[in-house]
Design brief:
Enoyl-CoA hydratase; 2-enoyl-CoA Hydratase, Chain A, domain 1; lyase activity; Enoyl-CoA_hydra_C; 12 helices; 260 residues; Enoyl-CoA_hyd/isom_CS; globular; alpha/beta; binds octanoyl-coenzyme A
Length: 260
Amino acid sequence: MPNYNNLLVEETDGILYVTINRPKALNALNQETMGELEALFGSDYASRKDLKGVLITGAGDRAFVAGADIKEFLGVAAAGSGKEMATRGQDVFFLIERFHAPVIALVNGFALGGGCELAMACHMRVATEQARFGQPEVNLGIIPGYGGTQRLNQLIGKGKAIELTLTGNMLDAAEAHRIGLVNYTLPAAEARAKAIELLQTIGTKGPVAVAESIKAINAYYASSDFEEEAAAFGRASGTKDFAEGAAAFVEKRKADFKGE
Ligand code: CO8
């Protein structure tokens, strides 16, 4: 099994258990973690036709993933490469969305920004009762850049997608279930069991049929415009507003945006 610095990866009975493991930063996705997800879904396991599926969760009891790593991203935005970074992240999440076996997010706490986007790139989501969902990028003066503007529409429709994206408000797990953002919301132990049960059930079906179903369902959404999202993310991340929003986050204060 390959070695990762930010992922714990175990395999039991044909199911791959992946834990994003940066609990001190609430499992925020830095570039190294994105590279490890790329290696895992792009090459290390992509040819494993015997895999029943993958379960992704976050380490610790507070977060699934609290977003892209804001502190690391500040340097990238200053260098003007926001668009490239968004495109790269989108490509990593496409590997998950297009993976031949089912990938389930077990959302065990905050799923914010890039964390909500990671959960949405998975084929299904099972939430624990303490899960919280949101796209708070607007609080930082940026927009979702890892597919959130496209996949929120797909999962919950335009009205709610716009509300969540423009307000940055968080949803609790019950509301996320009510609006269809997650497949199930359950107490923690039951949520894990449910995710495993889903993967075991799918694991008894024809692997070719499972892979072809994923492909065919994804095809319906082929006209989504991820490129426009990356371009818009690039524009927003080059603003003084983002510099202010990110500084406010680091200094734990409210941002004072000027629209510049
Ligand atoms: N990045 C880096 N560090 C983080 C992040 C993050 N996204 N989230 C939390 N942390 C760190 C905190 O800085 C803190 O570190 P320290 O102890 O060194 O101060 C530690 O984790 C614990 O966090 P808090 O003290 O803030 O814990 P609270 O319980 O007070 O608050 C929250 C929990 C509400 C989850 C709060 O941490 C928060 O709001 N986090 C940021 C959420 C957010 O804005 N996420 C979106 C990020 S932007 C994004 O994801 C864009 C995606 C597309 C990017 C495309 C190109 C990069």
